[in-house]
């Protein structure tokens, strides 16, 4: 069994949870043990996030994980102003930092500043490896995490709705862009602070969330596998 499975990842699941679930389904369909089945994913989604996850089934596809991970991505994002989070998302320690209420004009100007090629420092709570260890493991252990800034491209940063303290955005980015860091940086530019409360991935290159299946539908994996 080989191919790509587009899954709509639910909140609360890690990307590995999805892979593990699909692996068991494939193993059952092929009458094998799960450890005998090759399944991976391309492009991690945080546990609180939802949306499009490319799941790769079979050796011919799992070896192409880096290829699919490098594709551009589009997200629906909700940014909460006036507070920050230790992790940049709802799972961290929330701190109120400002009662400044930016105007819509202030917000639009800030978004323009972050459109195009920008330098971004990935969050400490990320899967980036530092000296062989995941950054988030070091951060959780209370160790100092230093990650060098890198260039990313923000292709689209569209304001959908603004009702303080919540801002809804559509964000299209290059591979390697961290939305949590982008939101935090916009919050700093506004002098208001911000963190990401909702994050949903809707596109990966030409792959559309509309074509994805719910995780509990993967029992029908044979019907949903596609070859690319």
Structure, explained:
- The chain is an alpha+beta fold and 228 residues long.
- It has 2 domains: 3-70 and 205-224, 2-Layer Sandwich (Pseudouridine synthase), CATH 3.30.2350; 73-204, Pseudouridine synthase (2-Layer Sandwich).
- Helices cover 25% and strands 35% of the residues.
- The strands form 3 sheets. Strands 1, 2, 3, 4, 7, 10, 11, 12, 13 and 14 form a 10-stranded mixed beta sheet that branches. The chain has a two-stranded antiparallel ribbon with strand order 5-6. Strands 8-9 form a two-stranded antiparallel ribbon.
- Strand 10 (150-163) and strand 11 (166-173) form a beta hairpin.
Properties at a glance:
10-stranded mixed β-sheet; 228 residues; Pseudouridine synthase; two-stranded antiparallel ribbon; alpha+beta; 35% strand; single chain
């Amino acid at each position: 069994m080989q191919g790509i499975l587009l899954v709509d990842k639910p909140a609360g699941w890690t990307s590995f949870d999805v892979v593990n679930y699909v692996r068991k389904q494939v193993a059952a369909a092929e009458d094998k043990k799960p450890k005998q089945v090759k399944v991976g994913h391309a492009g991690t989604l945080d546990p609180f996030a939802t949306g499009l996850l490319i799941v790769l089934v079979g050796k011919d596809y799992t070896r192409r994980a880096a290829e699919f991970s490098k594709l551009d991505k589009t997200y629906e994002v909700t940014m909460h102003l006036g507070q920050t989070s230790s992790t940049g998302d709802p799972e961290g320690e929330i701190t109120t930092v400002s009662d400044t209420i930016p105007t819509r004009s202030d917000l639009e100007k800030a978004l323009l500043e972050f459109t195009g090629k920008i330098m971004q420092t990935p969050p400490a709570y990320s899967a980036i490896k530092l000296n062989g260890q995941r950054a988030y493991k070091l951060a959780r252990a209370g160790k100092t995490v230093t990650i060098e800034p890198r260039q990313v491209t923000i292709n689209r940063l569209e304001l959908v709705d603004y009702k303080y303290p919540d801002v809804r955005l559509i964000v299209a980015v290059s591979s390697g862009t961290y939305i949590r860091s982008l939101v935090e940086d916009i919050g700093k530019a506004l002098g208001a602070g911000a963190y990401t409360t909702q994050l949903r991935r809707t596109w990966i290159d030409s792959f559309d969330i509309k074509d994805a299946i719910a995780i509990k539908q993967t029992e029908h994996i044979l019907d949903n596998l596609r070859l690319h």
